[in-house]
Structures are given as structure tokens and as C-alpha cells.
Amino acid sequence: MNPAKRRRLESTQLTLNKPFRSPLRTTRTTLSDGSDMAASGANPHVTTAPALHHASPSKASNFSLASIPAKGHNQYALLTRKLHKLRQSLDIAEQALQIVTSGQNDQLEALTTKWKFIAHGAADELFIDTKARIDDMGGLETWTQKAQDDKLLWAEDERHKSHGSQSSILEPDEDDTSVEPNLSQSPKPIVHQAFTMQLMLRQMNVDPTAIGFDEESERWVN
């Protein structure tokens, strides 16, 4: 046999004896491995550090509250309220300091003076009108007596309303020895005095010094 032909036969026989490997299977395996690595986001040359678990602020606060003993809850609440009040005082002080340093203090003083001037005029007009009405009623003593009578009548009317609403639900107790206020008793003695600006402001729950009225000299002051 020709030597060249023999070598071709031997190479062909060796090729046939090798196991069959599909090229498609190799490509799919390579692609699947690459897709898995891409999906996982892993880099074969980079090592991942272990994840650190940090406690959230809410969990930390819950833990701090839970760690307080039951006996210390009241003290904790008291200190919290005090801290809140101190923060409010600090905010007010900062606002006042800002007003003083920003030059707004002069503007506030001017507005305060203007407000007092308007309040003085309104109080004078009201005092003249009120004093005229009191004089028409017979003076301050008569007006005070009428005010006390109206107060007693109002209290008696409220007592009857309250008693009527209670009696519709509960029967009166015959053994009840509670003492009801005697509305027919003589009222408190009336102090004879003149109707003044100070008295009118006090009746209106207005502090005379707040709007610049001097109680000793009985006049307006700046």
C-alpha cells in the first residue's frame, strides 16, 4: 500500500475513534455561564465584603425607651417637658436678641407708643359714656347693687335648670342634708366709691399698667 495513502487512513481512523463533542453545546454552556455571572452581578476577580447590619433610628429609640425602668417613666416624661419648655424659652430669647440686634427695636417701640395712644383715646370715650349711664341709674352704688342682683338671679336660674335636669333622671333623696346656698341672704356690703378709670379697667380685666395708666396719679403716662 502506498505510504501516503496509509497515513491518511490512520489519521481518519484516529479521528473516528475520538468522542464526539458538539460545538453548539460548548457555546451554550459558555453563554449560560456568562449570563449567570451577568445576572448575579458578580465579578470573578472581585471579592464581595460581608454586609453590615446597622440598626435603624426607630429601632434604636424603641430600644432606649424600652430600656428605661417602669419607675423612671414619670421622671423621663417630666424631664422631657422641662426640656421642651427650655427650648421654647431659648427660641423666644433668640428672637428677642435678633430683634434688638437687627434694629427693629426702635420700630417696635414706635408701634407700642402708637398703640397706647389709640388705647388711651378709646378708654377715655368709653369711660365718659359708661360714667354717664351709671349717673343716670343713680350712681355707682345703685349700679353695683343691680349688678349683684343680676348675678344672684342668674345663679338661681342656673340652679333651677340644673336641679330640673337631675330630677328628671333621679328621684330626690329625702335624707339629703346638703345645704344649698341661701340666695336670699343679704349681699356683701357695698363700698362707697366713685367710678374711676381704674375701676372701669379692672372690671374689663385690663391691666391699667399695660396701656399706660398710672393708678396713683390717675392719669395716662407714656
UniProtKB/TrEMBL annotation:
A GO biological process held by the record: DNA recombination
Chain residue ranges for the region called Disordered: 18-46, 157-189
PANTHER family: MATING-TYPE SWITCHING PROTEIN SWI2-RELATED, SWI5-DEPENDENT RECOMBINATION DNA REPAIR PROTEIN 1
Protein name per the record: Uncharacterized protein
Source species: Exophiala aquamarina CBS 119918
